[in-house]
Amino acid sequence: MNVTSILAEIKNLVLYGGTDGVHYQKIQRKIENSNRITALLFSIVASILITAMLCLSYFQEGFAGSKPVYIWGIIFSIIQIFVAVMSKKFSALTYVSVYLAISVFLLYGIAIATLTRPDEQTVTFMVMLIFVPLIFVDRPIRMALSLIAYIALFIVLAMHTKTGSVLSVDVTDAIIFGLLSLVSETVVNRVKIRGYVLENQLHLMSETDQLTGLNNRNCYEWRLDAYPSLYKQSICCIYMDVNGLHELNNTAGHKAGDEMLQYIAGIVIHKFGTTDSYRVGGDEFVAFSLDMSETDILDKIRDVQEQIGAKQYHAAIGYAYADTPMVDMNKLIIQAETQMYKDKSEYYKKHDRRSR
To answer: pLDDT, tens digit, for every residue of 212-254?
Structure first.
């Protein structure tokens, strides 16, 4: 392994948890959703625990000196809950929510250790330092910089409030536990991120036709019910059936048939995109076009027919267009399929199936 590859691996580990920028981008939404839920639950638990500690401070003398910290913690937790709830609507708040949740516990540990109990060796902050970062998933570099900032804050405050052996032990522990936290956070994040990447790849495989790269029938059926809510003005179903596939397979071999399907799939992707294009059978393709005029769709269909014909291939194509709200997708597809079969029938009136 050369120096360049080693540096690339280090870069990917630090920035993307052991994957790369392309794969990380694909799983980022999943990470954000997971973090948002975790941050909300974390903050609710924090508010409950700190409230319980505040109640104890009125009855237990040992907790009384920490009342200001408990009150601050409750306020901070409530703010965090609000941010976590709002992050569902504004995704930019997701990571604000994550680092607020981390702050609730780490700053709580720092305050208890340096402001209310400076004469005692620190336990709470060290536990939080190891445990809290493992709850969330983020780029290791961002999490590491955050932890270093909290460790530095603890050491600075400890040097102003602690003395003697307590100070020496706490600073030493902060450095040791800080290093352990940085290492464990990096390792755990790497495992989680790679797990998300693998899950995403398996999901894509389950939804992708391996020959053509189009979405497969499973994906088609899973997404079908969502289409009425996706368009604003109109939706069109384009149904396509390749003519002569079986004959070509019999005369020129399956490789020739595969090449024909791949060629036609490439045209479908070029004209209608990958998101709403599907291979729903051996020689059947379906594409949906949202909020496009019927004239433009007909132009695209003509372009598809011309490009397919340029390779001496042929596909029967039918379409159905609707500009009403909440269209019945089954009826729309049946209309497009019926037109396709009419086109197919006309083709075979002129071309003997056996002549291919």
So the answer is: 999 999 999 999 989 998 899 999 999 999 998 888 888 889 8
User: Which SS3 state, helix, strand or coil, does residue 279 take?
Assistant: strand
The letter for the amino acid at 213 is G
Look up residue 112 and give its DSSP letter: I
Handedness of CA 284, 289, 294, 300 (dihedral sign): negative
The helix (H) or strand (E) run that includes residue 284 is strand 284-290
Instruction: Give the tens place of pLDDT for each residue, 244-271.
Output: 888 888 888 989 999 999 999 999 999 9
- Bridge-based pairing state of the strands 314-322 and 284-290: unpaired
Rounded to two decimals, the pTM is 0.69
Please state which CATH class domain 217-355 belongs to: alpha beta
Which residue is associated with the tokens 């390779």?
311
Closest CA to 174 of 215, 244, 114: 114
- Collapse the DSSP code of 277 into the 3-class scheme (helix H, G, I; strand E, B; otherwise coil) and give the result: strand
Helices 3-16 and 21-57: angle between axes, nearest 10 degrees: 40
Which DSSP string corresponds to 215-246? B-HHHHHHHGGGGGGT-SS-EEEEEEEEETHH
CA dist., res. 219 & res. 217, Å (int): 5
Count how many residues are written for the chain.
356
Nearest to 330 by CA among 343, 340, 320: 320
279: closest CA among 231, 320, 245, 228?
245
**Domain boundaries in the chain?**
3-207, 217-355
Task: Say if CB 196 and CB 24 are below 8 A apart.
Answer: no
For 235, phi then psi, to 5°, come to -145, 145
CB of 321 closer than 8 Å to CB of 297: yes
**Residue 188 in 3-state DSSP?**
helix
Closest residue by Cα to residue 102 from 71, 74, 70, 134? 134
